[in-house]
Amino acid sequence: MKLDLTRPNKLYRYSEKKWLDRSLRLGEFRLRPASDYRNMEGTTARTDDEQHRRIVLRNPNIMHVRTGKPIIPLGDVVMSSDIDSDYLVLCLATAYSDHFYQNFVGSDACLIIHEPNEFFNRLYRAIDSVIPTSWGAVDGPVSYGSSSKLGVPFTKPEKFVFQFEWRFTCMPIPPREKCEPTIVSIGSIKDIAEVVSASAMTTQPTNHSSGHP
Predict the structure, then answer these.
(1) 55 is in which domain, residue-wise?
(2) Does residue 49 belong to any structural domain of this protein?
(3) What is the per-residue pLDDT across 97-110, written as a single tens digit (0 to 9) for each?
(4) What is the pTM for the complete model shown?
(5) Is 164 helix (H, G, I), strand (E, B) or coil?
(6) Is the peptide bond before 181 cis (omega within 30 degrees of 0)?
(7) Does 69 fall in a domain?
(8) In the chain, is it the N or the C terminus that has fewer CB atoms within a 10 Å radius of its CB?
């Protein structure tokens, strides 16, 4: 199975400035259990069942296994997938837009990561000290309205397409019914990132000193 996991030129994390400042100065990030999102209140953009996916496939290409002929469905096809374990997740975005502040209630700043490859190099090195070595960790793009080859954690309904999400997940092996929030610290990332406030959204952030566009 071939996957294109080429990371974007920049990544963005929207949250309260006090937490993003800690991320910038200390490299501190909170990995949240996927099960927490099921019952979140106050924001539909964050409320989602991360362990069960129900995707409506419109005009899907379906072939008869034996004859190879196309099958024309009478209506939308619904695909359901489940994962029998909780897992840890860190959510980022691949886009820079003020609509994130409107949809993610409480966010007043944005952490802009100018060098995603270096960021994840540090994150993968640090994660070994906070999760068991048997767990699996991977980052990649979320697929909206269709099944991701990375499985349920990277598949979301089409209604969330505005999130433009790139996520990092840690999957427990063996499966766990419940994971606990986990803090990982990778050290200062001031050399590869910056924090901008919501008020700065009217102008594009200045280019980073490393020369990234």
Answers:
(1) 11-201
(2) yes
(3) 888 888 888 899 99
(4) 0.75
(5) coil
(6) no
(7) yes
(8) N
